[in-house]
Amino acid sequence: MNWRVKGLVQKVLSHVPAGHDAHYLIQRRFGGLKNFHGEFTGKVDDWRIMVGHLRDAGRPLAGACLAEIGTGWYPTFPFACYLGGARRVVTIDLNRYLKTELTRESAAKLGASLDLIAATCNVPIDEVQARHRLLIERLGVGVGVGVDDRLDLAAASGGVIDYRAPSDARATDLPDESVDCIFSNSVLEHVPRPVIEGIFRESKRILAPDGVMFHSVNCGDHYAYVDRSISQLHYLRYSDAEWRLWQNEFLFQNRMRAREFVELAEQAGFAIALNTAHATERRLRELAEVPIHPQFRRFPPEQLCITTIDFIARKAPAPRAAAGQSAPS
Prior knowledge:
39% of the residues lie in helices and 14% in strands.
């Protein structure tokens, strides 16, 4: 499909009655959700990578309290965290997108990944299996008809998963220093820069003194997934004013470069413990074929061409008062 066609169709659907339902049906029949097994398998692998990075950073998942930004249509990460022994998982979405059929299907499909979850989280397999049996039973997998609003993820997970939607990640009502890890997967690239700044400020407030943020960001042009004639760097040829025509409620892309997400975290008072961003020869070749708009020329090619980044930002300790001085009140 030509990327312009997709952009205009999505823009129209975002302004018509029942447009959200129509968009979901299109995704199920023709879009990314058509091959749900492939998409779900990719999400499970993303979760495995995240947990590995957190473990290496000294933040194991078992027993932790986590907060997810951006639940989406199905809660793969919260389910996997619950099965892996997380103490609590608060999952926050600006809108209630959760779908009953996909939620039940994802819970069922996790049955094939129980060994992986146990090994990744270093927890006994029998505990993972027991949690999965309860999850399947409480969600009514295989029972049949269900309504989205009847999904009770807290009840299905024995009180571990707390789904909050609609909710604003810039202003949660979570207590100060109550969360061990805040994470997102392919979310921040769809969020306006000022909102990300607010999310990072709120994250610092609710994170425990030794807490961390983990964010996996896909900062390439998402239209390239449906139009093979363009590259992940295609959208860098347009100014903000020109690109506004192709923005829509279903596919907003902030076009921020990888280093900007890290810089915002540092400005919010975090110390970077992991940064996987790196330039590849493929992306450098693709960049050479794109007429870059002047607003992006402040970035060197080695930074401009990066289209993916995982990073861990550690909550920096509050500065100590100098000798003979009292700490600010």
